Amino acid sequence: MSDDKKQAMEKRQATLPEGVEQTRDRTLFVPPASIYETDDAVVVSADMPGVAAENVDITVEDNVLTLRGTSDDQAPEGMSLVYGEYETGDYHREFSLSSKIDVDGIEAKMDGGVLTLTLPKVQPSHRKIEVQASGA
Amino acid sequence: MFHTMSNLYNPLRQLREFQRDVDRLLGRYAPASTRAGGFPPVNVYASNDGAVVTAELPGIDPESLDITAQASTLTVRGERTLETAGDESRTWHRQERAGGAFSRTFQLPFDVDSDKVSASYRNGVLTIRLERPESHKPRKIAVKTG
User: Fold this and answer.
1) Which of A66, A89, B23, B141 is most buried, with most CB under 10 Å away?
2) How far is CA A26 from the centre of its chain?
3) Integer CA distances (angstroms), B123 to A55, B55, B63, B120, B136, in order
4) What is the value of pTM for the model shown?
5) DSSP letters along B33-84, please?
6) d(CA B124, CA B99)
7) Phi, psi angle pair for B49, to nearest 5°
8) Which tens digit of pLDDT belongs to each residue from B33-61?
9) In what order do the strands lie in the sheet with B50-56?
10) Do the bridges between strand B50-56 and strand A64-71 make them parallel or antiparallel, or are there none, so unpaired?
């Protein structure tokens, strides 16, 4: 793996909007994401290792998609950390959606710490407008 | 003494250097939490009986991992395959997730029993449990008095 990729894999800490305080005493990370678009949908994947499916919270409000994930503590009982390269914590990320997304049709899947969201696009309805001649 | 103009008057460069110094002071380049040695990042826990190595490896097939332990050396090899841009119907907007082959070797604080290594994969976290051979475990020595 190249150095830039390693760099990209390092956990990025999330910054909350000014004046907003966290209510859990855990580090908050921005999950790395990939986004692609097809004719029918926008697909968002986010890496949230340590987060179980039931601990993912997805909301859409005012066209802002918010992903939250709380992770379980990984430290085994009765052992002490002798070497550490990463910190465990929670995840938070927001995306602004284009209004073309069918919010009710959003599907979410959590597999191996990777959240995949399928956001279906609203299909434009093709309606031909007839122009009526006034006959005058 | 002669200085070239670029050395003397380059406010932009000075600004960049200042920014770099500030970054270094604030520890932005090497925050303790992300002192990563590579991919995947690992944590090593130990007790008198053994060690546990955890690694954050989201979205991999655990079957594809190759884990070997010999004496006090642990090696983890594998590959993380991501959906690629190959499909033409897809327009990529962002790709922050990295993939590819990886291999990491660690020196453990003690020898481990290579027959008693177990690994589990849950929610994208790999946990490897290693035991010390019975004969290597530290024994408490009672001091006789009198």
Assistant:
1) A89
2) 19
3) 11, 11, 15, 10, 33
4) 0.74
5) GG---SSS-EEEEE-SSEEEEEEE-TT--GGG-EEEEETTEEEEEEEE----
6) 14
7) -90, -25
8) 344 468 899 999 999 889 999 999 999 99
9) A80-84, B42-46, B50-56, B125-131, B118-122
10) unpaired
Query: Under an 8 A CB cutoff, do B83 and A78 touch?
Result: no
ipTM above 0.90, yes or no: no
Task: Say which amino acid occupies B134.
Answer: E
CB within 8 Å: B124 and A85: no
Task: Give the residue carrying structure tokens 């390092």.
Answer: A10
Structure tokens at A52: 């179980």
β-bridge partners, B51: B46, B130
Q: Which residue has the tokens 């200042």?
A: B18
Token duo for residue A116: 């995949």
Contacts of B39 in chain A (CB under 8 A): 1, 5-6, 9
Distances (CA, A) of B120 to A94, B40, B97: 31, 15, 23
pLDDT single digits (tens) A77-91: 899 999 999 999 999
CA distance A69 to chain B (A): 12
